[in-house]
Write a structure and sequence with these properties.
The complex is a heterodimer of chains A (about 550) and B (about 400).
Chain A lengths: L5 H10 L12 E12 L5 E11 L6 E3 L12 E5 L2 E2 L2 E4 L7 E4 L10 E11 L3 E3 L6 E6 L9 E2 L2 E8 L10 E2 L11 E4 L5 E10 L7 E6 L8 E2 L16 H31 L8 E4 L9 H7 L4 H14 L3 E6 L2 E5 L9 H11 L3 H23 L4 H21 L3 H10 L1 H5 L4 H8 L3 E3 L4 H4 L1 H5 L1 E3 L5 E3 L4 E2 L6 E2 L1 E3 H20 L2 H12 L37
Chain B lengths: L3 H9 L10 E6 L9 E6 L5 E5 L3 E5 L1 H11 L4 H11 L4 H20 L5 H4 L3 E3 L11 E7 L22 H14 L3 E6 L8 H11 L2 E6 L7 H9 L4 E5 L5 H16 L5 E8 L7 H10 L4 E6 L5 H13 L4 E2 L11 H10 L10 E4 L4 E3 L9 E2 L5 H10 L1
Parallel strand pairs in B: 6-7, 6-13, 7-8, 8-9, 9-10, 10-11, 11-12
Antiparallel strand pairs in B: 1-2, 2-3, 3-4, 13-14, 14-15
Helix pairs in contact in B: 2-4, 3-4, 6-7, 10-11
């Protein structure tokens, strides 16, 4: 049982040289590599890998897993990195047989560790007739290993063989262990009652080739799933059975055959040696990460919020800065402060100027012009920064704003937080529902509410310092016994939403038409190109929101 | 004649395909191409590359992408690219062809739509500016002279007194040396570089080599339209005028640039630099509006006093709002106090520093500094080996 077919060994040695993703700047440690090899009752092999990487250099973006042969299907390969499923799985261009796992945005960053899990089922053609006992099947396997130029340090490698169901303890035999591993594996049973052989070396090398094996009676797997080793064993050759001419003829014939096999083999090896490894083309662009300092309406552009909502946010902002008072909500009419307060944003000034326009068409055009300027302004601000990271940043700000409101203990504090974070909370697409959910009871409306809601003002008086008092219902804050105006939570949320709807219907007209008028300027149709189109489009779709800072403001956007 | 054994040995140990040779390759789109673009590919010694689009957008390529970009620049027919790549790499022709096509499309998409976010829409990765180990800088700032026009004073201008100014021949030699080292762009500055009579000649030399050229000037001589036209004819690609708001000549030169840009339908990129001071900060928006109307392509902003940071941000917001893009990495007065650097500084305590990495500064006598105003000599561009200069720069 200790001798294996030479060619089978060679075959495995050639077919299993496995490697990780290759690049000049990869450098990592494999802390642990755990492999479970299930030798199935149908003669196939199922593999489970758990590989723990500690990365020192460029992100590990691809991991290639070598398999014993080509008898596998990509459909049977599943993989995860840090628990997240890997969807980019293709045949590896580097290992002879096996998949390449594209980690994509979950690439393991420099200085961090990551765990890759791989499951491959249904690998066939992996069993060979044992040389010492032809009634036995030989199951030989070498775990994945990585290029020594990339990997450093020692690795805790464990390989567990799960023999086919039904194999009895006295039947199987293990093959000699590779150097560094215990001569005899630890034996046991798995949860399915299958016999297990476990080899472990806590100081192994992840760049070394280790070959393990076991044999079991062929009767546990279907006939035909065990191949004959193709080795020629001259050890038992008895020339007495043949005359010398026959022997010479056989040897010459064999040499001729080997010569041609050799030629082919040399050609294949030479071709592989001659060529460089092929990595998929990778392009990185220089740029900064998060663009901080955007205002809520600017962030709304980036988050592709509907335009009526963006205008509502600007309106709230202007009202809060004492720049305007709503005199009529439907259609929206404002009393704009004269002179305007200092420190208004340019878009707030233009917004108020637009709303001062008497004609509906003129007002609409002025607002469209403003939105175009705002979109371009955000695009300019975003130049050199990452849209993806910035989007994630502002989504976090919105989530934190809501978290502050929702975690407040009392209605007063809740209301106070809501006022502080109003524009950011409005960026949540579920603003209406969340407001209703949070404010079951009264909402202590902000002091400027009377300037926003003319109806509210009728039953209240505006204090000299701009603080409003209300008759419905006055509640004590509990501390200073100061009465604050309040509204039922549902009414408050409804008032906000109605305000947006009124702005949309009464000022902007058809939102999709209004938006179309903006996007035809900010996202013009693509220029005609003589090139054939491929998988990459050059932007320009009317609703692609493709530019770095662009507001898609897709027609009716985001709703 | 080689024996059979030798031939077998040769087959067993074949000459391995090697990455492309290090070097700088350029491509200028033909006049008929509406995109009117320029590409520079720098192949680094390991086979990785830098692809620079229109002297501004920097892409880092892995070895395979570099190979494809090389063929893009060489206009190699697609079938030939498939053949060549599959001969050199372990990849089949079909895959090579597909990858080449996609790379071309992604680069064209970026050229056609510069505002397109390449990470989100083109599957590019993002790399922090100046974080990569470079084989050479992207740009060489050449201070041709420290002389200033008579009667002018600029406290922020370089003040080092050099013993001599290099001759035209010596500057030409430096430009060639820079190109050979892989530097695709030369930016002529000073002092006032237009005081050098050989500026046109130097521009032409750089252009002939294949370099992108830029000029930083007070713009006073640009009012002479004949002179300006000679600069444009010599191949000047971009210019930045250091604004002196109170000086009428500044505005005249901007008008002149804008005029010639229209007349020649030239693609020259014109920027203006405004240094915010306590004196002009209150009127910054008006100045920016005026610049916006003058036909410039971009604005550079800095402040000469950190207490003006708020006004600087406000000025930047205004420039954004009137759709005047910002540039911020030019060797201008107080260039370290620009809005982007300050924002990044606030956010993480330090900002990406390109001095000594992405650009180097050559003084009028050939001494090399990491950047304008950084008084640490890295060697002499004329006398020292490039490797020595660059080696010192990398330790800066």
């Amino acid at each position: 049982m200790k001798r294996f077919s030479l060619l089978v060994l060679i075959a495995f040695a050639l077919l299993i040289p496995l490697s990780a993703a290759n690049a000049q700047t990869y450098s990592f440690l494999v802390e642990r590599e755990q492999i479970d090899a299930y030798w199935e009752s149908d003669g196939s092999l199922t593999l489970f890998y758990e590989i723990v990487f500690q990365n020192f250099a460029d992100p590990i973006d691809f991991v290639d897993i070598g398999l014993p042969n080509n008898n596998y299907s990509l459909n049977n390969v599943q993989a995860w990195v840090d628990g997240k499923q890997i969807t980019d799985i293709e045949d590896s261009p580097y290992v002879s047989y096996g998949p390449a796992l594209g980690l994509g945005s979950n690439a393991i960053p420099s200085g961090q560790s990551g765990i890759v899990h791989v499951q491959v089922t249904g690998i066939s053609g992996v069993l060979f007739t044992d040389e010492e006992d032809e009634t036995y099947a030989s199951a030989v396997f070498s775990p994945n290993f990585f290029g020594s130029e990339f990997v450093s340090g020692s690795t805790d490698i464990t390989l567990v063989y799960h023999l086919p169901p039904g194999v009895l303890p006295a039947e199987p035999r293990w093959h000699p262990a590779p150097s560094g591993f215990p001569a005899e594996p630890e034996t046991g049973f798995d949860s399915e009652g299958r016999i297990t052989y476990a080899w472990r070396n806590a100081s192994a090398s992840a760049s070394s080739f280790y070959l393990f094996g076991a044999s079991f009676p062929q009767g546990y797997v279907p006939t035909g799933t065990v191949s004959q080793p193709s080795a020629v064993d001259f050890g038992n050759f008895d020339p007495g059975f043949f005359d010398s001419d026959a022997v010479i003829g056989f040897i010459i014939f064999g040499c001729v055959c080997l010569f041609f096999v050799g030629i082919v083999w040399i050609a294949v090896v030479a071709d592989r040696r001659q060529k460089m490894r092929y990595l998929p083309p990778k392009i990185a662009i220089e740029g900064n990460g998060v663009k901080r300092g955007l205002t809520a309406p600017e962030a709304a552009i980036l988050l592709e919020q509907p335009m009526d909502k963006i205008f509502s946010m600007i309106l709230f902002s202007a009202i809060r800065k004492d720049a305007a008072t709503v005199t009529k909500r439907d259609p929206l009419a404002l009393d704009v402060a004269e002179p305007l307060p200092l420190h208004l944003r340019e878009y707030e000034v233009l917004f108020l100027e637009a709303l001062k326009e008497k004609g509906k068409v003129k007002r609409r055009k002025a607002l469209q012009k403003l939105m175009v300027k705002l979109v371009k302004s955000v695009a300019n601000k975003m130049k050199g920064f990452s849209k993806r990271e910035t989007l994630a940043y502002y989504k976090t700000i919105v989530a934190e704003a809501w978290q502050q409101v929702e975690s407040a203990d009392t209605p007063e504090v809740k209301s106070e937080k809501l006022e502080q974070e109003l524009e950011w909370t409005m960026l949540d697409k579920d603003y209406d529902r969340r407001t209703r959910d949070v404010f079951h009871g009264p909402v202590y409306v902000p002091h400027w509410w009377g300037r926003y809601d003319p109806g509210f003002g009728r039953s209240s008086t505006i204090g000299s310092a701009g603080k409003s008092t209300s008759s419905v219902p006055n509640l004590s804050t509990g501390s200073g016994k100061v009465s604050l105006p309040s509204l039922p939570g549902g009414d408050f949320a409804a008032s906000m939403v109605t305000g947006v709807q009124n702005l949309s219907a009464g000022v902007l007209g058809s939102l999709s038409d209004f938006t179309g008028g903006v996007t035809k300027v900010t996202n013009p149709p693509p220029k005609t190109s003589s090139r054939s189109s491929g998988g990459w489009s050059g932007g320009g779709s009317s609703c692609a929101c493709a530019c770095a800072g662009c507001a898609c403001a897709c027609a009716g956007g985001g709703r | 004649m080689a024996t059979l054994l030798e031939r077998v040995q040769k087959r067993l140990n074949p000459e391995k395909a090697k990455p492309l040779s290090a070097g700088l390759y350029s491509y200028v789109a033909p006049p008929t191409d509406p995109l009117n673009y320029r590409l520079h590919l720098r192949v680094e010694p390991g086979g990785e590359g830098l692809l620079i689009l229109n002297a501004s957008t920097i892409l880092h390529l892995n070895r395979t992408a570099t190979e494809f970009a090389y063929h893009l620049i060489q206009n190699t027919p697609e079938e030939e690219v498939k053949e060549l790549v599959s001969q050199r790499y372990r990849v089949d022709k079909k895959r090579a062809g597909k990858d080449f096509f996609e790379l071309k499309e992604r680069i064209h998409a970026l050229l056609e739509t510069p505002d397109l976010d390449p990470v989100t829409y083109l599957d590019f990765e993002r790399q922090r500016p100046y974080s990569a180990a470079l084989g050479a800088p992207y740009r060489l700032d050449c201070a041709l002279t420290y002389a200033l026009p008579k009667g002018s004073s600029s406290p922020a201008a370089p003040h080092k007194r050099v013993e001599r100014e290099l001759s035209t021949k010596e500057w030409t030699e430096i430009l060639r040396k820079a190109w050979d080292a892989g530097i695709p762009q030369a930016l002529f500055t000073g002092g006032e570089p237009t005081l050098r009579d050989d500026l046109v000649e130097l521009l032409q030399s750089a252009e002939d080599i294949g370099m992108v050229t830029g000029l930083i000037t007070d713009g006073f001589k640009m009012g002479d339209t004949a002179y300006l036209k000679t600069l444009l004819d010599a191949g000047l690609d971009h210019a930045m005028i250091i604004l002196q708001p109170d000086d009428k000549q500044t505005w005249e030169s901007l008008a002149s640039f804008a005029y010639w840009k229209d007349v020649l339908a030239d693609d020259i990129f014109i920027a203006a630099h405004l240094t915010l001071t306590k004196k002009n900060a209150s009127s910054a928006n008006e100045l920016i509006d005026r610049l916006g109307h003058s036909g410039i392509s971009a604005l550079s902003l800095s402040e000469n006093d950190k207490s003006l940071s708020e006004q600087l941000h406000s000025a930047r917001d205004h420039a954004d709002f009137i759709d005047l893009p910002l540039v911020w990495d030019m060797p201008v007065p107080y260039s370290e106090l620009n809005p982007v650097a300050l924002e990044l500084d606030e956010a993480r305590g330090s900002h990406p520093e390109g001095a000594g990495k992405a650009w180097l500064y050559v003084e009028p006598d050939g001494d090399v500094l990491p950047a304008q105003g950084v008084e640490k000599a890295l060697g002499n561009m004329l006398k020292d080996d490039w490797e020595k200069v660059w080696g010192k720069a990398q330790k800066y």
